[in-house]
Specification:
Number of strands: 0
Structural class: mainly alpha
Oligomer: single chain
Mean pLDDT: 81
Shape: globular
Helix content: over 70%
Largest sheet: none
Order of helices and strands: HHHHHHHHH
Strand content: under 5%
Length: 233
């Protein structure tokens, strides 16, 4: 009897696991898969490029400071601390701005991305502590768009798929952050200049932003295709 109970329990667990796997598979790879949404796929590609550029200032900024002999000023108030502190305020302020009835969250999100990539590209050109501090403050503020990502994701996939979609975006950001610093180090090993890490990462970020700009076009195309299918039915 005891053996039969164990066998029955194992059988029930197997059925439960199979049902759970079937639900997970249909959610991610089935007919209702998020990956069939081309707008969302473009957003994932942006996420794969974006976060690697954001972490690079934290990796190579101390070396830029040493290169321009600004260590004494940086020791008083580190530039990386400026990024972190202003980042907190950026999240709150950008969230408040995007909540205004006359403001589009998507436009705020795009403008913050453009500001961030511009600052990353220009940061190596700054050679004084004050100019670096201003650029770092802008990096911290514009990177506050992270607080808008759940809202933007919901607009793309709807409330029903928000949890899965946002998890995928965070995973893409994690992959980007994982490979960003080693990639920046590899660039330095080749060029022996820290500047090129910012330039190349900024250009890759621009590629991600291009995919953001393509999203309205993709949405219009998908709407036309959906209308055509409904008309045929």
């Amino acid at each position: 009897m005891y053996g039969l109970r164990i066998l029955k329990t194992v059988s029930q667990l197997t059925v439960t696991v199979r049902k759970g796997f079937a639900m997970w598979y249909s959610s991610y790879f089935g007919a209702a898969s998020l990956f069939t949404n081309r707008v969302f796929v473009a957003f994932i590609i942006w996420a794969l490029f974006a976060y690697s550029s954001f972490v690079i200032p934290f990796i190579h900024l101390p070396e830029i400071v040493k290169q321009y002999n600004l260590s004494s000023q940086n020791n008083i108030f580190p530039l990386t601390s400026i990024i972190a502190i202003v980042h907190i305020f950026g999240k709150v302020i950008l969230g408040i701005i995007s909540d205004l009835p006359c403001i589009s969250t998507w436009n705020v999100f795009l403008m913050a991305n453009f500001t961030l990539v511009t600052c990353i590209l220009t940061l190596p050109l700054m050679q004084t502590y004050v100019s670096l501090a201003v650029v770092c403050a802008l990096i911290g503020f514009s990177s506050g768009y992270f607080s808008l990502m759940p809202v933007v994701t919901e607009d793309l996939v709807g409330t029903k798929h928000l949890a899965n979609a946002y998890g995928i975006i965070i995973c893409a950001n994690g992959i980007s952050a994982l490979f960003g610093p080693p990639f920046a180090g590899w660039i330095y090993d080749i060029t022996h200049k820290y500047d090129f890490s910012f330039y190349i990462s900024g250009l890759l970020y621009m590629v991600g932003i291009i995919f953001l700009l393509l999203q309205p076009c993709i949405q219009k195309k998908q709407s036309r295709e959906k209308s055509t299918e409904e008309a045929q039915v």
